[in-house]
């Protein structure tokens, strides 16, 4: 499978997601959080540093559950540039930010499908039937 390069917006969104998860994890160890989310510590580390900018929706949902984060809060925070945080590269320190807030449920409704469309958006090229090309 060939993946197209991520757009700058997708990279920035991944960095915002990573910063949110690092803040929410606080003093909790990465190992404890990863085990609670049923993912590897390496996966969590890559998501937190922005190396996995478009993690799968079930992975984000599992981490959010382990950190007691609402998916609405995650959605709201990763889709708008954060106040007070500049996107970071791996190895750079994260600047302090204001706590995240969930959207107002009376004026904005976010579905799991909306979140999945952004969080796990992966542009893939159509698969080619290898046997069709061999036999012709």
From TrEMBL:
Region (Disordered): 80-108
SMART domains given in the database record: HTH_XRE
Span of domain HTH cro/C1-type: 21-74
Transmembrane annotation, as ranges: none
Any one GO MF annotation of this record: DNA binding
InterPro entries (UniProt xref): Cro/C1-type_HTH (IPR001387), Lambda_DNA-bd_dom_sf (IPR010982)
UniProt superkingdom: Bacteria
Stored Pfam families: HTH_31
Stretches with biased composition (Low complexity): 99-108
Protein name, per record: XRE family transcriptional regulator
Protein source organism: Pengzhenrongella frigida
């Amino acid at each position: 499978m060939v993946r197209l390069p991520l757009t700058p917006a997708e990279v920035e969104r991944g960095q915002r997601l990573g910063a949110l998860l690092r803040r929410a994890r606080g003093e909790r160890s990465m190992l404890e959080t990863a085990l609670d989310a049923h993912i590897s510590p390496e996966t969590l580390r890559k998501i937190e540093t922005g190396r996995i900018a478009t993690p799968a929706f079930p992975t984000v949902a599992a981490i959010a559950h382990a950190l007691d984060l609402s998916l609405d809060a995650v959605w709201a925070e990763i889709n708008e540039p954060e106040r007070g945080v500049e996107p970071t590269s791996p190895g750079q320190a994260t600047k302090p930010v204001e706590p995240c807030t969930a959207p107002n449920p009376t004026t904005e409704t976010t579905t799991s499908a909306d979140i999945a469309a952004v969080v796990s958006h992966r542009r893939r090229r159509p698969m080619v039937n290898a046997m069709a090309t061999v036999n012709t």
